Amino acid sequence: MTLARTWSVGLAGVQGAMVEVEVDIAAGLPGVVLVGLPDAVVRQSVDRVRAAVVNAGGEFPARRITIGLSPASMPKQGSGFDLALAAAVLAAAGAVRRRAVDRLVLLGELGLDGSVRAIRGVLPAVLAAAQAGHRQVVVPAANAAEAALVERIEVLAVEGLAQLVGHLRGETVLRPHERGPSPVQPPVPDLGDVVGQAAGRRAVEVAAAGGHHLFLGGPPGAGKTMLAERLPGLLPELDEQAALEVTAIHSIAGTLPPDAPLVTRPTFEAPHHSATMAALIGGGSGQIRPGALCRAHRGVLFVDEAPEFPRAVLDTLRQPLERGQVTIHRAAGSATFPCRAQLVLAANPCPCASAAGDTACTCSPLERRRYQSRLSGPLLDRVDLRVELPPVTRAAWLDGLGAPESTAVVAERVRRARLAAEERLAGTGLGLNSQVPGRMLRERFAVPRASLRLAERALERGSLSVRGFDRVVRVAWTLADLAGRTVPGPDEVAEALGMRLQRSAA
């Protein structure tokens, strides 16, 4: 009896778990038994490994082979175990040294010709290997730049199984892959392209400074999409920890650009109105993958033509937006993804969507009411800023005075406002005004009662819920940070209340 083992990584959400791959070769009728809760893709890996070994110039053992994937109670999914299975089988057969693979972590899919193909989720897998104490990992050459983002671990990039076998036999030496310089980022859309719409520009600036959710209403051509697309450019670049979080999500989703292994800018996701619940939140029949909300983590989720989305689909956003993470349950297990994204909703005022506004609208009051009611009250109650954009006038389009402020100018104000908020929130574990819970707003960051009179009257009249009152106070703090004030005054509260109730009044 000959026994060999090596290591790979299984993923559940963005968390990786070490998987020990054991291979036992014994006398008996030739055959392969694979145990350890493999899915269909992992079970098919036996045929891929057999063909790859033969076509790479090796010999697949014609004996009884038992392959165990431990821990046996954890479901194993995906093709990333192929390379580890091949190395363990070859070690058990004596084709390579068993000691050479004993602590080695191998990730990659095998082609039938022996080539090693790229897989999803390499970054979280290598992070898990580093945390478990492993010091060397073998990955496909196409994933090497992504794997090299993890410090304290050597990354060996291979293009084929024969190359790996030569390294394990000591015939050739694979050099650790070095992390290269970050690629030059393309320019972001400039806020200076937006003509007029002072209220919309102000709302986007406030949303960026405080991390607030935003609703933009108005006729077609008013600039709703343009404003939403320019919001990520106002946000600061991601720090190292946030960049790794976002990159791990996109690695699992398979949306990581090959020429940009590290996501350093806030992302922008704009799903189509035909998107399903699984496409928006995440899911899948096999391996659970993140949806648009999770891919927008630390960035912006733009829901254009929001009333065209099924109401039940949009309402699934409510709880994840509050918690900052979503847990997806399936019969085979569950996966948790972070989803602390900024939501931007955009909608036309009515189904006919006349660019001329109310003067040319052909919709009845009942049709307009039905159209607007497709956005549920509980969802809108979680949106801090609601702005109605008027049609762009001829004067603003052709005779505008002076060039609008650029993204760089507004982003600098946003940066200073965020620094002020971080200094005030130091020690709380929070970084943005939109994250401050209501109790902390009332006890630690209380606004003078004299400044809150307008908001209190709105609460008494029923125009505001208690949640809405807290959100008005959060926006007031953001406005104070933008103005360089140490505490919100009546003007900041009045402006925050106006941004909150503008759509209701409209």
Q: Which blocks of ≥5 consecutive residues have pLDDT under 50?
A: none
* Sheet having the most strands: 5 strands, parallel
Q: Roughly what is the average pLDDT, rounded to an integer?
A: 90
**Residue fraction in strands:** 15-25%
Rounded to an integer in angstroms, the radius of gyration calculated over CA atoms is 28 Å
In angstroms, what separates the terminal alpha carbons? Answer: 79 Å
Strand numbers in spatial order across the main sheet: 11-14-17-10-18
Helix content: 25-40%
Count of alpha and pi helical runs: 21
Structural class: alpha/beta
Total DSSP E strands: 18
Shape: elongated
Structure description:
- The protein contains 21 helices and 18 strands.
- The protein is α/β, with parallel strands linked by helices and 506 residues long.
- The strands form 6 sheets. It has a 5-stranded parallel sheet with strand order 11-14-17-10-18. Strands 1-2-4-3 form a 4-stranded mixed sheet.
- Helix 1 links the parallel strand 3 (31-35) and strand 4 (64-70).
- Helix 1 (40-55) packs across helix 2 and helix 7 runs parallel beside helix 8 (224-234).
- It is elongated.
- It starts with a strand and ends with a helix.
Provide key terms for this protein.
elongated, four-stranded mixed beta sheet, alpha/beta, 506 residues, five-stranded parallel beta sheet, single chain, 17% strand
